[in-house]
Automatic annotation (TrEMBL):
Organism, as annotated: Oryza barthii
Protein name: DNA replication complex GINS protein SLD5
Signal peptide: none
Protein's cellular compartments: Nucleus
Domain spans labelled DNA replication complex GINS protein SLD5 C-terminal: 174-228
Pfam family, one: SLD5_C
GINS subunit domain sequence ranges: 72-137
GO cellular component: GINS complex
Length: 228
């Protein structure tokens, strides 16, 4: 075998390994997003790489169709393409569902907005504007000042003229106290689960735990713990 063939084979093997690694990373991002009660940070570089790999697989399958490659080889490539497409679509769909559910909550937080991709930010803004317009036309326009705006209503917890404290608009928020299944990727050691140090757990690599998401969200964000 010539040197250029060796180089070509090595490059192909490296590309295949990188594609496999990115699919595993996407699977991990999908699991974390599915199990997390709140929306996590969008992994833009990973999604861009996966989209490039999908395009490459589609082009390869087109070339196979023209060159008469064995059907078994074609089916294997098609399976890889289908698996990758499913993961990417499911990952993006999970995020859109969370944006739809928590749009008002997300729109009030710069931190949460920064976790979204540019397309997701536009989607969240569009959803929020449509919801505000619907509420103002159907309900809030008929109420006194102070209750006639979604923004004022969401920030208001004052008493009305009758001395009754209530909120007309309840904005859904993710329940961060939810218990989640998780697995440590490395030894974390003694980890404090509460603010006063009464709950401490020794997090050992590759062990499974059931913990409150709020306590470990920092470890999830840093990649030290995976949700399952």
């Amino acid at each position: 075998m010539s040197s250029w063939e060796d180089d070509d084979s090595a490059a192909a093997a490296a590309a295949a390994a990188a594609a496999s690694t990115d699919v595993e990373l996407l699977k991990r991002a999908w699991r974390n997003e599915k199990a997390s009660p709140e929306i996590l940070r969008f992994d833009s570089p990973l999604v861009s790489r996966v989209r490039e790999q999908i395009q490459l697989l589609e082009e390869t399958l087109d070339d196979f169709g023209e060159s008469g490659v064995d059907d078994l080889v074609v089916s294997l490539y098609q399976m890889d393409l289908d698996r990758t497409l499913f993961l990417l679509r499911s990952y993006l769909r999970l995020r859109l569902q969370k944006i739809e559910k928590y749009m008002m909550h997300i729109s009030k937080s710069e931190d949460l907005l920064s976790r979204l991709s540019q397309q997701e930010q536009r989607f969240a803004k569009s959803c929020t504007e449509m919801m505000e317009k619907h509420l103002e036309q159907s309900v809030l326009s008929k109420l006194p000042y102070g209750y006639d705006s979604v923004t004022r209503q969401s920030l208001s917890s004052t008493e009305d003229d009758m001395g009754i404290s209530f909120d007309l608009i309840i904005i859904p928020e993710p329940q961060l106290d939810t218990f989640v299944f998780c697995k440590t990727k490395s030894d974390v050691g003694a980890f404090q689960l509460d603010d006063i140090g009464e709950e401490v757990v020794d997090l050992v690599a590759d062990d499974l735990y059931v913990l409150r998401y709020k306590s470990i969200k920092g470890l999830v964000e840093s990649g030290q713990i995976d949700l399952i």
